[in-house]
Amino acid sequence: MNSKNTKSVLHQMWTAKGAVLMIFMLFLSASTFAQTKKQISGTVYDNTGTVLPGASIIEVGTKNGTTTDFDGKFSLQVAVGGAIEVSFIGSTTQKVQITGSTSNVEVRLQNDGYTLAEVQVVSVGYGKVKKSDLTGAISTVGADDLVKGTISSTEQVLQGKVAGLNIIRPSGDPAAGSTIRLRGGTSLTASNSPLIVVDGIAGVDINIVQPSDIKSVDVLKDASATAIYGSRGANGVIMITTKSGTKGVSVVYSGLTSVGYVNDNLDLLSGNQWRGYVRQNGIADAVDYGANTNWQKAIEQTAISQSHTLSINSGKADSGFRTSLSYLNNEGVIKKSGLERLSGNVSAYQFLGDNKEVKFDMGLFANIDKWHPIDYRIFERAYNLNPTIPVYDANGNFSLVTGNIYDNPVEILTNRTFDNERHRLLGYFKTDVKFLNDFTATANISLEHNAVKGGTYKPSYAVMEGQTEGGFAQRTYAEYTNAQGELYVNYSKVIDKHNISALAGYSYLENIYEGFGAQRGGFVTDAFSYNNLGAGYNYRLSDVYSYKGKSNLVSFYARANYGYDGKYLLTATVRRDGSSRFGENNKWGTFPSASAAWRVSNEEFMESSKGWLDNLKLRVGWGITGNQDGIGEYKSLSILGVGSDSYYDPVTKTWSLAYSPKQNPNPDLKWESTEQVNIGFDFGLFNRITGSFEWYSKTTKDLLYTYEVPQPPYLVGTMLANVGEMSNKGVELTLNADIIRGDKFNWNANLTLGHNVQKIEKLSNPTYKTDVIYSGSLHGLAGMSGQYSQIIAEGYPVGTFWGFKNAGLDSNGKIQYYNAAGQVVDESALVDADKTDLGNIQPDLTLGIGMNFTYGNFDLGLSGYGMFGQKALNATNMMLNDPNRLPAFNVPDSFLSSGITSAPKYSDYWIEDASFFRLQTLTFGYTLPLKYKKSKVRMYVMGENLFVITGYKGVDPEIGLNAQDGVGQTGVMDQTGLAAPGIDKYNNYPRPTTISVGLNFTLNN
């Protein structure tokens, strides 16, 4: 080896920090003796200057080749005097000559008019592929297509944007979250929400990322795509890629100020209408308090909100960073409610080595939320109170009238302190090392921390708990930490017409959670608020609690991809998960998948269709995934707990509480397993229309549920076991169209449609049996304690309403019913056998639509979504239409003409069609280009929730799938959707109509 070559090797070792590049020593040494070969590197861009991952580089006349990485970079050993061909689907192929002086090349490929949607790069878990090479069902939403506006919960940006993905936000409360369902729920007791992956970090809180920081979102739908995440992939995977440093320097500011107001309330009697009713009916003992109060308006306000984001980007070929800072103050339309959020993130990358063999990536996300939960019982009080009662009495104090559920809702809002604060943190460090030309090893470590603290104080003069407790104070704290490590190797090789890639990896996750809380009543002064619990003199054993838990997940995974001539594509994955959450006999599970695709449009016999058919690809996939999230730790073990019995300790000569069994052991406990088949096709027409169609069938087995078991032999009367089976079958359609594409005027549109049918296939086996599970509790409604409105039973979907079918009103205003024989009977003749299926909460069709128009520098955009065919129980209306309410309680206007004389009784008389279409956003903007290096300013006005088309009689037809009772106090929602799905029960925080003005400013250098 001559001295010049020796220096080259030493330089390589030093630049890449020696220890890492020792792996390449033999390879580099060998190449110095091949006098006709040399190592070149380069970057491939499209005609706009955007890097092209997945571009193909082939040495002309050989099978030697490679592909570009996620940053558009490649490295290849080629012969001096030869040439390379660089190609990318949708772009013209370019040839580059290699001379003795060639070391680094930049290639810009020109678009050849092919449908651009097919050349997108999509996240698939532990890697990215071109959309044209996908074999699974994956939908992608770019940053420009995400929902804009006053967004307080990040999942809202996907509402109506992905076929089969339902984002249901049942409340206008800025601090409330949403229910996310992809292709129907798969569990009765575990989580039904998709796995969230942010920049490759799985299982994180979606709100760690702010909408302005999102580059793209990829939704993995079928099991062939999600099986790479094994026991966490049954509900689908939402992969978020955030913006990172790019070439150049830019500063971007985005600001928004909005005004929100309630556009729709229940139409209840006014004070004058109440007086008219009293006079007309001669009710002598009715009390007129002299006012004309709209109690709904009394608890509402005009909400003034604002958001601001500032981001700075700086990037070069070898390094770059991006940082952003955001502030959101989202005021609620109910007094005292709102959300304030301060968030920031920084990401950076650095290449090392002459050929950029080593890349470091790091990211840090953090935010702080502050909000003031409200007591949701105010809504029932606002509907109940006599409209002649004033908010304040003659002395300026809150009016207080004695009565059951008759407390002044404005007093409840005012005379209580609820302070909650949440801290989120996510950090990761990632290293990529390329070796042997075709291999890339990746190590990724991350830490997520989430902590919530709360303080509550109800002074001694506050109604309800404040007065009964003599002052009530509470402090709570909860936190969790997820530490993850990933180590995987990717292989990619192009040999002539063969495209081969493979992945193998290892993952380790540790989750630790803990919390505590304390409360106390009986305060002689209210001066301490919740800051001195020891000052309270009322003590109960249950006033203090604490907990801590830990779980581990260890995984091995692999994936192989093969493509031939861009026409025939195969993918296979397998993951093996070991979880500490499940029983001794089922600690490990295997989750395989396979899929294939055929690009029919690339066949020679399709040449005649090239003028109108841009793309036609058929896909089929199969896989098995699991669900172990949402199942608590230690559920497979025997657990002791403090009981109600006491025993006498002769040593201490005191009585102590006895410990007794609280949970039976189940060594066979394991994850729920979902098997799914997906058949789909992608198409492109006339270089203007793209779309996809999906048919899927998925069956979830080993459903977890707590069953009653005999005592003896069991020590406890219940046990969590894997027994049930559930199916979801459906179709999805996605369409995108450039309707008009001109020099000045452009019009494009998108449409998503989804249809899903769910059914419980099995609930029992020879060991664990149940005929029906009752859900949809009506507890808390007058006269309905212990009653349920829904069942979970074989042959029916979750959320099936079960009860008596009404036959309308008789001549006396009494609701009549059909018995099992179809005969019309009155209420007294009904028996349980007369109950029947009254519909369910599952929509028959979900829809999303969007349109964008541009004319010169002007732009107009709209988006909307809808759900059709689902039923909802309007329990609020059922209770308000009680003939016994007047004159003490208020009633709807419509009650006076309804003729109803029956007391409230659950039946389908109160079940309504909750179909709706909502105009989500309407935006009009103008972009002013600046002369300085493509800088620009955009000004716009936006309307949100401008109208809803529905026949539903309640406040809002978008009824949640979760239990809403107390959500404002706890901040916790039931993610199973079993407790009260599809029930409107005094829990409607109004969804505001919002008008906003905004400014975006981009400065490029």
General form: globular
Rg, Cα atoms, Å: 32 Å
Class by helix and strand content?
Answer: mainly beta
Low-confidence stretches: 1-35, 963-977
Number of helices: 11
Strand content: over 45%
Ends apart, CA distance between termini: 46 Å
Mean pLDDT: 89
Total beta strand runs: 50
**How can the largest sheet be summarized?**
22 strands, antiparallel, barrel
Classify the helix fraction into a percent range.
under 10%
Write the layout of secondary structure elements.
Elements: H1 3-15, H2 25-32, E1 37-45, E2 56-59, E3 65-67, E4 73-79, E5 83-87, E6 94-97, E7 104-108, E8 121-123, E9 128-130, E10 138-142, E11 165-168, E12 179-182, E13 195-198, E14 201-202, E15 214-220, H3 223-226, E16 237-242, E17 248-261, H4 271-281, H5 295-298, E18 303-315, E19 319-331, E20 338-352, E21 358-371, H6 377-384, H7 409-414, E22 417-435, E23 439-458, H8 465-469, E24 472-495, E25 498-521, E26 544-564, E27 568-579, E28 588-599, E29 613-627, E30 639-649, E31 654-663, E32 672-685, E33 689-708, E34 718-741, E35 745-762, E36 773-777, E37 788-792, E38 800-803, E39 805-809, E40 815-818, E41 824-825, E42 836-840, E43 845-855, E44 858-868, E45 871-874, H9 875-880, H10 895-898, E46 911-913, E47 916-929, E48 936-950, H11 967-970, E49 983-984, E50 993-1004
Parallel strand pairs: 1-7, 13-16, 45-49
Antiparallel strand pairs: 1-4, 2-3, 2-5, 5-6, 8-9, 10-15, 11-12, 13-14, 15-16, 17-18, 17-50, 18-19, 19-20, 20-21, 21-22, 22-23, 23-24, 24-25, 25-26, 26-27, 27-28, 28-29, 29-32, 30-31, 32-33, 33-34, 34-35, 35-43, 36-37, 37-38, 38-42, 39-40, 40-41, 43-44, 44-47, 45-46, 47-48, 48-50
